[in-house]
Write a structure and sequence with these properties.
Length: about 250
């Protein structure tokens, strides 16, 4: 099984076939998961903001979500999201597959009762597949590496904050750093593919309107989902097929 974690626009697009909605109990709480198939491959899909779109970034239970995916048998997980560009030299919309991240503020971990350290990061195998498929299918420019700066949310960033973080990162979002950290702690292979839908506050002299960001993200989500759907098949072929006892 392969996992997908996405934003609110997943609810508006048919992603899986033979869908069953399940609620998975974990040590960290319960997680809502859609279990279905993509071209016969078993996929578990989580909408990180909830089916009712009522979980803001700082309230998402990443530990429950990723533990649920692991419990269901997903070892490889693709995260999807929308980010703001910190670079004015990129033509939008664009696709970015970050290779590193900065997350000073979320503090997410499954290790609240033990002194355990992990070396965080995105998984190179999943990144490699996303890059290969994106460069083949994307109608948008593809940035195959970059730093994702995670802010806490749910508010957008000030001009001063963007002026500072643009010196250290290429895009800004609110979830992928937390997801990557929890995935690594649970020994899951995770990487993110993001649509760059807008320039962050102050990068260009444009008014930042959250409703416009949501509108653009929705328009660009289908391109991202096309890449992710194909990536699921490549991951299955490259990393699962022929494995002893494997189950699609």
């Amino acid at each position: 099984m392969i996992g997908i974690v996405g934003g609110t626009h997943i609810l508006e697009i048919e992603v899986l076939s033979e869908v069953e909605e399940v609620e998975v109990a974990t040590p960290y709480g319960r997680a809502e998961v859609d279990v279905g198939t993509i071209d016969g491959i078993n996929v578990a899909l989580i909408q990180r903001h909830g089916k009712k779109k009522n979980k803001p970034p700082h309230k998402i239970n990443h530990a429950a979500n990723f533990y649920a995916l692991k419990k269901l048998g997903a070892n490889y997980i693709i995260g999807m999201g929308s980010v703001g560009s910190l670079r004015d030299d990129i033509t939008l919309p664009a696709i970015i597959i970050p290779d590193d991240y900065i997350d000073f503020f979320s503090g997410v971990t499954i290790y609240s009762d033990s002194l355990t350290h992990i070396t965080p990061g995105f998984d190179d195998d999943v990144r490699g597949v996303l890059i290969k498929v994106a460069k083949k299918l994307s109608k948008f420019p593809v940035i195959d590496r970059g730093v994702y700066f995670q802010t806490r949310g749910p508010r957008l960033e000030t001009r001063a904050e963007i002026a500072m973080i643009k010196n250290f990162a290429d895009c800004v979002g609110m979830t992928a750093g937390s997801e990557a950290t929890i995935a690594k702690e649970l020994n899951l292979k995770y990487a993110a593919i993001c649509t760059m839908d807008n320039y962050a506050h102050g990068i260009k002299e444009e008014r930042i309107d959250y409703r416009e960001i949501v509108k653009k993200a929705g328009e660009n989500a289908r391109m991202c989902l096309e890449i992710v759907g194909e990536a699921v098949k490549v991951i299955w072929d490259d990393f699962y097929t022929g494995s002893e006892g494997s189950d699609p």
